[in-house]
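Form 12-C: Joint structure prediction
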Amino acid sequence: MDRHTSQRIAIEASLRTAQRPLSPAEILDASKPDAPTINLATVYRTLKRLAESGLIRPVDLPGEPSRYELAGLPHHHHFKCDSCDRVFDVPGKCPSGLTDGLPSGFRVRDHEVVLVGTCADCGHAPTRPGRSRRPRASPSHNRGT
Amino acid sequence: MDRHTSQRIAIEASLRTAQRPLSPAEILDASKPDAPTINLATVYRTLKRLAESGLIRPVDLPGEPSRYELAGLPHHHHFKCDSCDRVFDVPGKCPSGLTDGLPSGFRVRDHEVVLVGTCADCGHAPTRPGRSRRPRASPSHNRGT
DNA sequence: CTCCAGATGCGAATGCACTATCATCTGCAT
DNA sequence: ATGCAGATGATAGTGCATTCGCATCTGGAG
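Section 2 - Result
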Protein backbone atom coordinates (compact mmCIF):
# COMPACT_ATOMS: atom_id res chain seq x y z
CA MET A 1 0.00 0.00 0.00
CA ASP A 2 2.49 2.57 -1.05
CA ARG A 3 2.95 2.63 -4.75
CA HIS A 4 4.89 5.30 -6.49
CA THR A 5 2.22 6.52 -8.83
CA SER A 6 2.70 9.62 -10.91
CA GLN A 7 -0.03 11.32 -8.86
CA ARG A 8 1.63 10.70 -5.54
CA ILE A 9 5.01 11.70 -6.88
CA ALA A 10 3.52 14.93 -8.24
CA ILE A 11 1.84 15.72 -4.94
CA GLU A 12 4.98 15.19 -2.92
CA ALA A 13 6.96 17.25 -5.39
CA SER A 14 4.45 20.09 -5.17
CA LEU A 15 4.78 20.24 -1.41
CA ARG A 16 8.54 19.96 -1.50
CA THR A 17 8.83 22.69 -4.10
CA ALA A 18 6.31 25.14 -2.73
CA GLN A 19 8.20 25.94 0.46
CA ARG A 20 4.91 26.98 1.99
CA PRO A 21 1.68 25.27 3.13
CA LEU A 22 -0.63 24.38 0.23
CA SER A 23 -4.36 23.80 0.18
CA PRO A 24 -5.73 20.68 -1.54
CA ALA A 25 -6.87 22.87 -4.43
CA GLU A 26 -3.43 24.43 -4.75
CA ILE A 27 -1.86 20.99 -4.68
CA LEU A 28 -4.25 19.85 -7.37
CA ASP A 29 -3.20 22.73 -9.61
CA ALA A 30 0.47 22.35 -8.86
CA SER A 31 0.34 18.64 -9.63
CA LYS A 32 -1.50 18.81 -12.93
CA PRO A 33 1.57 19.48 -15.07
CA ASP A 34 3.13 16.24 -13.83
CA ALA A 35 -0.07 14.24 -13.54
CA PRO A 36 -2.66 15.70 -15.90
CA THR A 37 -5.50 13.39 -14.94
CA ILE A 38 -5.16 13.94 -11.23
CA ASN A 39 -8.38 14.34 -9.31
CA LEU A 40 -9.27 16.19 -6.10
CA ALA A 41 -10.35 12.95 -4.46
CA THR A 42 -6.91 11.54 -5.11
CA VAL A 43 -5.32 14.62 -3.61
CA TYR A 44 -7.36 14.19 -0.42
CA ARG A 45 -6.68 10.46 -0.25
CA THR A 46 -2.99 10.96 -0.74
CA LEU A 47 -2.73 13.82 1.73
CA LYS A 48 -4.46 11.69 4.31
CA ARG A 49 -2.00 8.88 3.85
CA LEU A 50 1.02 11.12 3.78
CA ALA A 51 -0.17 12.77 6.97
CA GLU A 52 -0.73 9.42 8.66
CA SER A 53 2.71 8.29 7.64
CA GLY A 54 4.13 11.44 9.20
CA LEU A 55 5.61 12.79 6.01
CA ILE A 56 3.42 15.87 5.93
CA ARG A 57 1.45 17.80 8.49
CA PRO A 58 -1.78 19.82 8.37
CA VAL A 59 -1.57 23.57 8.87
CA ASP A 60 -4.82 25.03 10.17
CA LEU A 61 -5.47 28.75 10.13
CA PRO A 62 -8.51 30.54 11.45
CA GLY A 63 -11.39 30.43 9.03
CA GLU A 64 -9.50 28.34 6.51
CA PRO A 65 -9.58 24.73 5.44
CA SER A 66 -6.44 22.76 6.24
CA ARG A 67 -3.34 23.33 4.25
CA TYR A 68 -0.40 20.92 4.26
CA GLU A 69 3.33 21.25 4.56
CA LEU A 70 6.25 18.90 4.91
CA ALA A 71 6.67 17.61 8.42
CA GLY A 72 10.00 17.89 10.14
CA LEU A 73 10.60 21.51 9.33
CA PRO A 74 12.05 23.57 12.14
CA HIS A 75 9.48 25.36 14.26
CA HIS A 76 8.03 28.37 12.50
CA HIS A 77 4.89 30.45 12.28
CA HIS A 78 2.74 31.42 9.32
CA PHE A 79 1.85 34.51 7.39
CA LYS A 80 -1.42 34.73 5.52
CA CYS A 81 -1.71 37.23 2.68
CA ASP A 82 -5.08 38.94 2.64
CA SER A 83 -4.82 39.64 -1.03
CA CYS A 84 -3.75 36.40 -2.68
CA ASP A 85 -4.75 34.07 0.17
CA ARG A 86 -1.42 32.33 0.09
CA VAL A 87 0.22 31.24 3.31
CA PHE A 88 3.95 31.61 3.88
CA ASP A 89 6.35 30.31 6.46
CA VAL A 90 7.81 32.78 8.91
CA PRO A 91 11.14 31.45 10.11
CA GLY A 92 11.22 33.74 13.15
CA LYS A 93 11.78 32.13 16.50
CA CYS A 94 9.09 31.87 19.14
CA PRO A 95 8.31 35.12 20.88
CA SER A 96 8.54 34.95 24.63
CA GLY A 97 5.93 36.18 27.05
CA LEU A 98 3.27 34.23 25.25
CA THR A 99 1.86 32.78 28.39
CA ASP A 100 2.06 35.89 30.52
CA GLY A 101 -1.25 36.69 32.11
CA LEU A 102 -2.55 33.17 31.94
CA PRO A 103 -4.64 32.34 35.02
CA SER A 104 -3.23 29.69 37.29
CA GLY A 105 -4.33 26.16 36.60
CA PHE A 106 -4.15 26.61 32.86
CA ARG A 107 -1.61 24.39 31.17
CA VAL A 108 -0.35 25.24 27.70
CA ARG A 109 0.45 22.36 25.40
CA ASP A 110 0.92 24.30 22.21
CA HIS A 111 0.52 27.68 20.62
CA GLU A 112 -0.27 29.11 17.22
CA VAL A 113 0.88 32.41 15.85
CA VAL A 114 -0.49 33.71 12.59
CA LEU A 115 0.45 36.98 11.00
CA VAL A 116 -1.98 38.54 8.55
CA GLY A 117 -1.22 41.21 5.99
CA THR A 118 -0.02 41.55 2.43
CA CYS A 119 2.86 39.62 0.97
CA ALA A 120 5.71 41.11 -1.00
CA ASP A 121 4.11 40.29 -4.34
CA CYS A 122 0.77 41.82 -3.46
CA GLY A 123 2.36 44.83 -1.86
CA HIS A 124 3.84 45.80 -5.22
CA ALA A 125 0.98 45.09 -7.62
CA PRO A 126 -2.64 45.72 -6.65
CA THR A 127 -3.65 42.20 -7.58
CA ARG A 128 -1.53 39.22 -8.21
CA PRO A 129 -2.32 37.48 -11.47
CA GLY A 130 -1.76 33.78 -11.86
CA ARG A 131 -2.85 33.06 -8.35
CA SER A 132 -6.52 32.54 -7.86
CA ARG A 133 -8.02 34.18 -4.83
CA ARG A 134 -10.06 31.48 -3.38
CA PRO A 135 -13.70 32.52 -3.11
CA ARG A 136 -14.04 32.78 0.60
CA ALA A 137 -16.57 35.52 0.64
CA SER A 138 -18.47 34.76 3.79
CA PRO A 139 -17.05 36.53 6.80
CA SER A 140 -18.40 33.90 9.07
CA HIS A 141 -16.73 30.62 8.75
CA ASN A 142 -13.47 31.24 9.65
CA ARG A 143 -13.00 28.19 11.26
CA GLY A 144 -11.70 26.97 11.83
CA THR A 145 -12.66 26.20 14.72
CA MET B 1 -35.11 47.39 12.77
CA ASP B 2 -33.80 47.00 16.23
CA ARG B 3 -36.42 45.79 18.61
CA HIS B 4 -35.64 44.75 22.11
CA THR B 5 -37.00 41.26 21.99
CA SER B 6 -36.45 38.84 24.82
CA GLN B 7 -34.28 36.77 22.49
CA ARG B 8 -31.95 39.59 21.61
CA ILE B 9 -31.72 40.69 25.20
CA ALA B 10 -30.87 37.15 26.26
CA ILE B 11 -28.20 36.82 23.61
CA GLU B 12 -26.52 40.08 24.54
CA ALA B 13 -26.69 39.15 28.20
CA SER B 14 -25.08 35.78 27.50
CA LEU B 15 -22.16 37.39 25.77
CA ARG B 16 -21.78 40.06 28.42
CA THR B 17 -21.88 37.52 31.21
CA ALA B 18 -19.69 34.83 29.71
CA GLN B 19 -16.47 36.86 29.69
CA ARG B 20 -15.23 34.62 26.95
CA PRO B 21 -16.03 33.95 23.27
CA LEU B 22 -19.13 31.82 22.79
CA SER B 23 -20.17 29.65 19.88
CA PRO B 24 -23.69 29.99 18.48
CA ALA B 25 -24.61 26.71 20.15
CA GLU B 26 -23.25 27.92 23.49
CA ILE B 27 -25.17 31.15 23.09
CA LEU B 28 -28.32 29.19 22.35
CA ASP B 29 -27.92 27.22 25.56
CA ALA B 30 -27.00 30.22 27.63
CA SER B 31 -30.01 32.14 26.33
CA LYS B 32 -32.64 29.49 26.88
CA PRO B 33 -33.28 30.30 30.54
CA ASP B 34 -34.22 33.87 29.58
CA ALA B 35 -35.85 33.10 26.24
CA PRO B 36 -37.08 29.49 26.31
CA THR B 37 -38.36 29.39 22.74
CA ILE B 38 -35.18 30.75 21.21
CA ASN B 39 -34.00 29.09 18.05
CA LEU B 40 -30.58 28.57 16.47
CA ALA B 41 -31.62 30.52 13.37
CA THR B 42 -32.48 33.45 15.58
CA VAL B 43 -29.11 33.22 17.27
CA TYR B 44 -27.37 33.36 13.91
CA ARG B 45 -29.55 36.21 12.66
CA THR B 46 -29.00 38.21 15.80
CA LEU B 47 -25.26 37.59 15.89
CA LYS B 48 -25.01 38.77 12.33
CA ARG B 49 -26.77 42.01 13.12
CA LEU B 50 -24.86 42.62 16.31
CA ALA B 51 -21.62 42.05 14.46
CA GLU B 52 -22.64 44.43 11.68
CA SER B 53 -23.56 47.06 14.22
CA GLY B 54 -20.13 46.66 15.76
CA LEU B 55 -21.36 45.55 19.14
CA ILE B 56 -19.77 42.13 18.94
CA ARG B 57 -16.95 40.61 16.97
CA PRO B 58 -16.26 37.14 15.60
CA VAL B 59 -13.42 35.14 17.10
CA ASP B 60 -12.03 32.58 14.71
CA LEU B 61 -9.76 29.79 15.80
CA PRO B 62 -8.10 27.18 13.60
CA GLY B 63 -10.46 24.38 12.72
CA GLU B 64 -13.36 25.86 14.64
CA PRO B 65 -16.56 27.64 13.67
CA SER B 66 -16.74 31.30 14.64
CA ARG B 67 -17.29 32.25 18.22
CA TYR B 68 -18.36 35.73 19.27
CA GLU B 69 -17.31 38.16 21.96
CA LEU B 70 -18.11 41.74 22.85
CA ALA B 71 -16.28 44.22 20.68
CA GLY B 72 -14.28 46.97 22.30
CA LEU B 73 -12.44 44.77 24.77
CA PRO B 74 -8.80 45.61 25.23
CA HIS B 75 -6.47 43.60 23.00
CA HIS B 76 -6.03 40.06 24.19
CA HIS B 77 -5.35 36.56 22.94
CA HIS B 78 -7.26 33.35 23.37
CA PHE B 79 -6.82 30.03 25.07
CA LYS B 80 -8.58 26.95 23.81
CA CYS B 81 -9.12 24.05 26.19
CA ASP B 82 -8.59 20.71 24.51
CA SER B 83 -10.80 18.97 26.96
CA CYS B 84 -13.96 21.05 27.25
CA ASP B 85 -13.53 22.97 24.01
CA ARG B 86 -14.19 26.28 25.69
CA VAL B 87 -12.24 29.34 24.67
CA PHE B 88 -10.96 31.82 27.25
CA ASP B 89 -9.52 35.28 27.04
CA VAL B 90 -5.85 35.69 27.85
CA PRO B 91 -5.28 39.22 29.09
CA GLY B 92 -1.53 39.04 28.54
CA LYS B 93 -0.01 41.78 26.48
CA CYS B 94 1.37 41.25 23.00
CA PRO B 95 4.66 39.40 22.84
CA SER B 96 7.35 41.21 20.95
CA GLY B 97 9.50 39.75 18.23
CA LEU B 98 6.45 38.48 16.43
CA THR B 99 7.54 39.82 13.11
CA ASP B 100 11.20 38.91 13.36
CA GLY B 101 12.32 36.92 10.39
CA LEU B 102 9.64 38.24 8.09
CA PRO B 103 10.98 38.69 4.56
CA SER B 104 11.10 42.27 3.34
CA GLY B 105 8.07 43.48 1.46
CA PHE B 106 5.69 41.71 3.78
CA ARG B 107 3.40 44.05 5.68
CA VAL B 108 1.65 42.85 8.81
CA ARG B 109 -1.82 44.21 9.47
CA ASP B 110 -2.78 41.96 12.33
CA HIS B 111 -1.76 38.89 14.22
CA GLU B 112 -3.47 36.07 16.03
CA VAL B 113 -2.12 34.15 18.96
CA VAL B 114 -3.89 31.09 20.24
CA LEU B 115 -2.77 29.00 23.16
CA VAL B 116 -3.97 25.42 23.38
CA GLY B 117 -3.98 23.23 26.44
CA THR B 118 -6.18 22.36 29.38
CA CYS B 119 -8.07 24.92 31.44
CA ALA B 120 -8.09 25.09 35.20
CA ASP B 121 -11.38 23.19 35.49
CA CYS B 122 -10.29 20.37 33.23
CA GLY B 123 -6.88 20.17 34.84
CA HIS B 124 -8.51 19.20 38.13
CA ALA B 125 -11.26 16.82 37.04
CA PRO B 126 -10.73 14.37 34.16
CA THR B 127 -13.88 15.52 32.38
CA ARG B 128 -15.96 18.54 32.95
CA PRO B 129 -19.64 17.72 33.24
CA GLY B 130 -22.23 20.23 32.15
CA ARG B 131 -20.20 21.31 29.19
CA SER B 132 -20.66 19.34 26.06
CA ARG B 133 -17.54 18.57 24.10
CA ARG B 134 -18.47 19.45 20.62
CA PRO B 135 -18.02 16.54 18.25
CA ARG B 136 -15.19 17.76 16.10
CA ALA B 137 -13.77 14.46 15.14
CA SER B 138 -11.69 15.71 12.26
CA PRO B 139 -8.09 14.65 12.68
CA SER B 140 -6.90 17.83 11.11
CA HIS B 141 -6.05 19.90 14.03
CA ASN B 142 -2.94 18.70 15.64
CA ARG B 143 0.01 20.73 15.03
CA GLY B 144 3.29 20.42 16.68
CA THR B 145 4.71 23.46 18.33
C1' DC C 1 -55.47 49.75 22.58
C1' DT C 2 -54.31 48.86 17.58
C1' DC C 3 -51.66 47.80 14.05
C1' DC C 4 -47.94 46.47 11.31
C1' DA C 5 -42.90 46.42 10.26
C1' DG C 6 -39.84 43.79 11.84
C1' DA C 7 -38.59 39.57 14.57
C1' DT C 8 -39.15 34.80 15.45
C1' DG C 9 -39.66 29.53 15.04
C1' DC C 10 -39.46 25.82 12.35
C1' DG C 11 -38.07 22.95 8.76
C1' DA C 12 -36.11 22.73 4.44
C1' DA C 13 -32.34 24.24 1.72
C1' DT C 14 -27.61 25.72 0.70
C1' DG C 15 -22.56 25.75 0.43
C1' DC C 16 -18.51 23.77 1.31
C1' DA C 17 -14.95 20.54 2.62
C1' DC C 18 -14.30 16.12 2.53
C1' DT C 19 -15.40 10.90 1.87
C1' DA C 20 -17.48 6.72 -0.13
C1' DT C 21 -18.49 3.84 -4.05
C1' DC C 22 -17.17 1.33 -7.78
C1' DA C 23 -15.56 0.39 -12.30
C1' DT C 24 -11.23 0.88 -14.42
C1' DC C 25 -6.35 1.26 -14.43
C1' DT C 26 -1.39 0.32 -13.19
C1' DG C 27 2.94 -0.39 -10.18
C1' DC C 28 5.54 -3.96 -9.25
C1' DA C 29 6.37 -8.63 -7.15
C1' DT C 30 6.65 -12.85 -9.28
C1' DA D 1 5.59 -10.49 -19.46
C1' DT D 2 1.58 -11.29 -16.20
C1' DG D 3 -1.66 -10.82 -12.57
C1' DC D 4 -3.56 -8.66 -9.00
C1' DA D 5 -3.54 -5.75 -4.81
C1' DG D 6 -3.79 -1.40 -4.46
C1' DA D 7 -4.48 3.29 -6.70
C1' DT D 8 -7.18 6.30 -9.45
C1' DG D 9 -11.15 9.11 -11.69
C1' DA D 10 -15.72 10.38 -11.80
C1' DT D 11 -19.48 11.30 -9.28
C1' DA D 12 -22.74 10.79 -5.76
C1' DG D 13 -23.03 11.16 -0.93
C1' DT D 14 -22.05 13.02 4.07
C1' DG D 15 -21.75 16.02 7.77
C1' DC D 16 -21.80 20.33 9.48
C1' DA D 17 -22.40 25.27 9.86
C1' DT D 18 -25.17 28.60 8.32
C1' DT D 19 -29.13 30.62 5.76
C1' DC D 20 -33.74 30.81 3.52
C1' DG D 21 -38.88 30.82 3.12
C1' DC D 22 -42.79 31.70 5.16
C1' DA D 23 -46.47 31.63 8.42
C1' DT D 24 -46.95 33.41 12.92
C1' DC D 25 -45.98 36.48 16.57
C1' DT D 26 -44.94 40.90 19.02
C1' DG D 27 -42.49 45.44 20.38
C1' DG D 28 -43.52 49.82 20.46
C1' DA D 29 -45.05 54.03 17.72
C1' DG D 30 -49.37 56.24 17.15
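Section 3 - Comments
The first strand of chain B starts at residue 56 and ends at 59. Chain B has four helices and five strands.
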